[in-house]
Design a protein that fits this description.
Blueprint lengths: L2 E11 L7 E10 L2 E6 L7 E4 L3 E5 L1 E3 L20 H12 L4 H17 L2 E8 L8 H11 L2 E8 L18 H15 L8 E7 L7 H14 L3 E5 L3 H11 L3 H7 L7 E5 L5 H10 L2 E4 L1 H6 L7 H7 L3 E3 L12 H16 L6 H15 L16 E5 L24 E4 L2 E5 L2 E2 L4 H15 L4
Parallel strand pairs: 1-4, 1-5, 6-7, 7-8, 8-9, 10-11, 11-12, 12-13
Antiparallel strand pairs: 1-2, 2-3, 5-14, 14-15, 15-16, 16-17
């Protein structure tokens, strides 16, 4: 039996149904689960002093492309819109291999962990030079974070009217076959699972209608979730109207891509009917505010989605369209953008943090995570509010208004992945050194 006692937390934001907040409280972690919450708890295990800390559930990242960590701030794509940005980066990505995928994933997940993230999804849709989804999964397992990998795909190259180069697309039969392989090998449907797998064609403009439909059939036969990009910007909507004769939400519905086992990235350009459709079907959305700003895509109608009952979580998106992977920063950006669009009372700091925690867990179907509640998984972020960032704050629990940008401690399944602001599970300095070497080689710097 393994125990850790988090002692005398200044504030605990539970994110339970009632939005309970607790002061001067202990939390006992036992064998990966929250075993008890209350004052003056006892343990024979390790004790972590939390008297200066706000405790939240671990943040949940619902959309990422971890491999892109080697292509931050690429000059040719810094000021491009989505389609032009992709065309700049595809030739670089096709030079990647298994080691690039593994090291990029470790760096990206470490960056997320330091920003409070305990559970991350990943959308990997290209596999050059022998790379496989297995590479990213191995990186997550070694780092010790909870991981929802998705087997992405592209099947329509530039010669057939798609965006990606032909060298990066795959045969559709082979795509489906590999989806079955990775699900059978890695997917764990049980409570407390550290790895789950989903099926994720890249986008409606890089796969065929048949692959979208067949992927949905396969996912439901296997009992796994489905993910793709949808309605990201005006170009995306125009493509759908021209090629499919309908809006993106209608296209998704026609092909079986709505329901509680589906979540779509971005959805910046959903209209009122599409929002109602997603609410009625409990189709999830991964809101990626920083990436949407970076690419000039617009402000997603998150307030309208939440009011309608659409499940919404946050995503940092790939590092090539965000240039960083801070989930706590993403939550602040989401809060501010909804205020810009709808007024200062449109989204509170606590509401945005709820989207970043319980909201993301619900979108990923992880009802065992996202709350600080007895019996749920011991995924916790401890934020030290005694430092400079919180100085002068009258409400330290309003972390997104005035609070630290990195955690002091992070627990995943009761294991301490971050201690005193440092990754504990891998030699992150050695990984970073290798990552820098790879980035220099890709940039032609030796």
């Amino acid at each position: 039996m393994s125990e850790i006692l988090i002692r005398n937390a200044r504030t605990v934001l539970t994110m339970d149904d009632a939005g309970t907040e607790l002061a001067d409280t202990d939390i006992l972690l036992r064998d990966g689960v929250i075993a008890a919450i209350g004052p003056r708890l006892e343990t024979t295990g390790e004790i972590v002093d939390a008297r200066h800390c706000v405790v939240t559930p671990g943040l949940v990242n619902t959309h990422h492309h971890l491999y892109q960590g080697l292509t931050k701030a690429v000059p040719g794509g810094q000021d491009a819109l989505l389609f032009g940005w992709l065309q700049t980066l595809y030739p670089i990505w096709q030079r990647f291999g298994p080691e690039e995928f593994y090291v990029s994933a470790q760096i990206g997940l470490a960056e997320l962990a330091l920003s409070g993230c305990t559970l991350s999804s990943d959308h990997l849709y290209l596999y050059p030079n022998g790379a496989r989804l297995d590479d990213s999964i191995a990186a997550a397992q070694d780092l010790g974070v909870r991981f929802h990998a998705t087997r992405g795909s592209m099947s329509i190259g530039v010669s057939k009217g798609g965006l990606p180069p032909d060298s990066l697309v795959e045969n559709e039969a082979a795509i489906l076959e590999d989806c079955i392989r990775v699900i059978d090998t890695f997917h764990d449907p049980s409570e407390g699972a550290m790895v789950r797998v989903g099926v994720a064609p890249c986008s409606p403009f890089s796969v065929s209608r048949e692959l979208m439909r067949d992927s949905a059939i396969l996912a439901r036969d296997k009992g796994v979730m489905m993910h793709t990009h949808l309605a990201e910007n005006d170009e995306d909507v125009a493509y759908s109207l021209e090629k499919f004769g309908c809006r993106p939400g209608q296209y998704a519905e026609e092909l079986g891509w709505t329901g509680p086992d589906v979540w779509h990235a971005h959805c910046v350009k959903l209209d009122g009917q599409e929002i109602d459709l997603f609410a009625a079907t409990r189709t999830g959305v991964a809101h990626c505010p920083c990436s949407n700003c970076r690419l000039g895509s617009g402000i997603a109608p998150v307030r309208a989605m939440l009011d309608a009952g659409v499940p919404v979580g946050l995503g940092v998106d790939g590092s090539a369209s965000n240039d960083m992977a801070s989930l706590i920063g993403e939550a602040r950006q989401a809060m501010l953008l909804q205020r810009v669009q709808n007024g200062a009372d449109a989204m509170s700091a606590r509401a945005a943090l709820r989207v970043a925690t319980r909201g993301g867990a619900d979108v990923l179907g992880r009802h065992d995570c996202g709350q600080v509640v007895v019996g749920l998984r011991a995924d916790l972020a401890l934020w030290d509010v005694s430092g400079l960032e919180s100085a002068g704050s009258w409400d330290p629990a309003a972390l997104l208004l005035a609070g630290p940008q990195k955690v002091r401690h992070l627990f995943v399944e009761g294991r301490q992945v971050v201690r005193d602001g440092r990754i504990t599970t891998v030699d992150i300095d050695a990984v970073l050194t290798r990552h820098k070497e790879m980035a220099r080689t890709l940039a032609g710097l030796g």
